[in-house]
Write the structure tokens for this entry.
Amino acid sequence: MHIPDGYLSPITAGTMYVVSTPFWIVAVQHVRKALTRRTVPALALFSAFAFIVMMFNIPLPGGTTGHAVGGTLLAIVLGPWTAVIGVSVVLAIQALLFGDGGLIAFGANCFNMAVVLPWVGYFIYKVISGNSDIASKRRLVGAVVGSYIGIVVASVVAGIELGVQPALFHAADGTPLYAPYGLDVALPTMAIGHLAIAGPVEAIVTGLVFFYLQKSQSSLLAKTEEPRKEGKLWIVWSAALVVLAFATPLGLLAAGTAWGEWGVGELKDTLGYVPKGLESMAGFWKAPIPDYSVPGLGNVPGYIISALIGLVIIGVLVWLLARWISHKKSSGQKPSVKGGSAV
Amino acid sequence: MKGKSFLAGNISSFTQALESMVVTEDLCRAPGLLQGLDPRVKVITLVLFIILVGLAQSLPILILIFIFAFVCVILSKIPHVHFLKRLFIFIPLFTAVIAIPALFITPGVPLLSLAGRTIITEQGARTAGFLIMRVVDSLSLGLLLVLTTPWTKLLAALRWLRLPSLIVAVLGMTYRYIFLLLHTTNAMFLARRSRIIGGFRGGENRRWLGRALVTAMMKSQYLSEEVYLAMLSRGYQGEVYILSDLTMRRRDYLWAAFSVVAALLILGCTYL
């Protein structure tokens, strides 16, 4: 996900620096307060560890290998603000020392991997684990699901940054100046790659380390738990989601269709023609609820119901995944003694 | 994946990272054009050039910038092979995955037709060319900075550019402890490898990896406490002071002037 220089226009790259800066400032203040004089050595060693995590080749089921980012893991063990600094420091060293990730794209890379990834992962971990015991299965599931969703969301954000380039920056004759693919290509490419490979790698690393930390170093995990009462946090967030679902008809007020989500007819109106390939593919997939409207209902209730159905489906999928993972972990992973310890 | 090749793969990537860090340190100390410049001037001008690479909108200018970068490589006595190797580790991946499809799918004026069908469009060729040259140029300029500036000097320059001293100190120490942790984890993998014949299945490897990662984490945790105590015993009070003996010389001013003129020329060619 390391975006090199040359893919983003300097304007986008500069914007992403501006977007990331407040996170860096708040993170430095937070970390300074939390770690006091220990800040410098602690952060340095944590960052060095994060660097090592990114170096590891993780064997995936099926024979391929991949690298993890470890952002969610750091956020869970050290707190999300520390993770922001830790991952940023690692990205800086990778960019400056190994040419991995661009210098002017550094702001964008940090936003994706050091801000979005740990925060999304940490948030989902918190929502799933709730008030449960440090050693509980629920927390393990939270860590696994959180890290998976965290990296996928981060890749989608990166896909958006890359995908808006051709529409915003092109020469007079239409030649894209930077990343050449629009959202229609960039988004699915990034998302599929991360859903299929990088996501599982991240989930495996986070799950494994979390599992062993639960077994042997639960005091470390407990340290970052703030003694705040947030037991019913998930109810607040579910309520927020439902409110959002009810607010979806607001989208009807906006003129036109979401960028990139044109139907064939709308494309013809806008472009004057329908790309051949698209026309032949248009009938390939019929959504169960076409255009987010339920037959027989008006526009607005149809939208609300569609949104709620979508929420329920996603909720059930996540729940099933969580169950499946926790089941697998409890049945398949007896602590192995014969493997020996490291070194 | 067999256990042995998994271990060997990790050991070789750790070793490569260590080697590349050591080689970089060596190159930075060689006498050459860019090594002799003030790091502040180097950081500002090379980043300026990378931004220009982003702003330039013609292929000849992008090619010219690459030639300029390569001349700097020669004058800075950076071994060409090493430079090109580091440059082209990244390029084949990009060209294959990103740039080549753009040749064929970008709509526009036909450039190459086969049996009456447009294969490559002019726009496609230009967009692929832009992408490749931009990545090559930016990476070359970035490598020039990295390969000619010792890490400590680079950090002194960043401090001068108002990066908080806390961050500068963390960057400096992280760099130092990456060496140590790389050595440590490398030793863990070597130890594992020396104890097995044949290999393990993926699942067992992953479990071992989990334990290895937790061990590395605990080691770094323990080490950070030790380092903190060592700092305390040397009078550390929570404030970081960064020594800097940076001085501007005549060649620094000359280089800065040259860069500004070049930048203005490129901008003039692009936007006038």
User: Anything to note?
Assistant: The first helix of chain A runs from residue 10 to 35.
